[in-house]
Design a protein that fits this description.
184 residues, alpha/beta, hypothetical protein tt1805, Virus Scaffolding Protein, Chain A, 2 domains, 54% helix, rod-shaped
Length: 184
């Protein structure tokens, strides 16, 4: 799978796709043709196989597969079968990414389709999921730093014991106790 597909490659693929397959929905074909003729829109179009948890998705199928003709998914909105609603949203928000899932015969073995497929990344995850991952990462880092600092304080206590230095032992023990008390 390619990570970056040019506008020219997307346009060429859509021409090939429309020349070789008939969509179940005539309106969906018009939407695809609209995407194909608008470079500012086509720049934001991404062909994907896994479109779960993506913010804006159009799913289109051809007459040769038993899949729903058209579906439009928009974050926090009900799934729609209305192509006009998708078109309007695309028209009103041309600067937002749109992910396209295509269902057609032999898609798994199609070199043309494989050449435009893009993998979804964590940047495309819902903001709540991104925030949760970020918080978990911060927690792991904080725990690692805290563990390192505690280990250093324990080494100071051990060194004071090895040296049989009573004053140094009490000072290192006090700092260790304060450290443990501060990290409840």
């Amino acid at each position: 799978m390619s990570s970056t597909v040019t506008i020219a490659e997307k346009k060429q693929f859509l021409r090939w796709f429309l020349a070789n397959y008939q969509l179940q929905s005539r309106e969906a074909e018009m939407l695809i043709r609209y995407m194909m003729t608008r470079e500012n829109v086509l720049r934001r179009v991404h062909f994907v196989e896994n479109f779960h948890h993506l913010p804006r998705v159009v799913v289109v199928s051809t007459t040769c597969v038993p899949v729903a003709p058209f579906r439009y998914y928009r974050r926090n909105k009900p799934v729609s079968t209305d192509v006009e609603q998708a078109f309007l949203d695309l028209y009103q928000h041309p600067d937002e990414d749109i992910y396209v899932g295509l269902y057609f015969k032999d898609r798994a073995t199609s070199p043309a389709y494989a050449s435009v497929l893009e993998e979804t990344t964590s940047m495309e995850l819902e903001p709540a999921v991104q925030e949760m991952i970020s918080l978990q990462a911060e927690w792991v880092i904080d725990q690692a730093v805290r563990s390192f600092q505690r280990r250093r304080l324990m080494d100071e206590v051990d060194r004071a014991l090895d040296m049989r230095d009573r004053a140094l032992f009490f000072e290192a023990s006090r700092r260790l106790s304060e450290f443990d008390a501060s990290g409840v």
